[in-house]
User: Fold this.
Amino acid sequence: MNLHEDIMRIKKVMGVLNEHSRSNTIMNMINDIGLYNTIKMMGNYEDVLNYINYEDISDADKIKFIQEVVELKSPNIRRTGNISIHDMGIPPISYDSYSNTDREITSFGMKGVTINVYKNGKFAGQQVVPYDLMSADSIDRSFKTMLKYS
Assistant:
């Protein structure tokens, strides 16, 4: 064996991981125990995002993460199975705008988000939008919000 092979074998035996293998290990952890638990094990979400490409997190994993946060945090807040933006201490999250209608996310539940609808600047009601019907952009904004809250 040459010196390079010996060094590689020692690193492997000693558990020294290179950047590529750390990324793979973290992605495997996300697949096995979920993003929420991976973040908790790593310390915080910045530590996880330092080793994986943000775009590698699928919408399904983002939704699962949101649901995990709701499931773990909502019993401590209201026991209603949802978390409002008021509980989180943040302003409403823009969902979309069209034809003088603005919609804003006001709470997160296990199956979807509650949205306040405003027409011409006036409150016009609420809607519940299931996560699987949300746009990728809305899921991403919701995911980033829940990362900070978790």
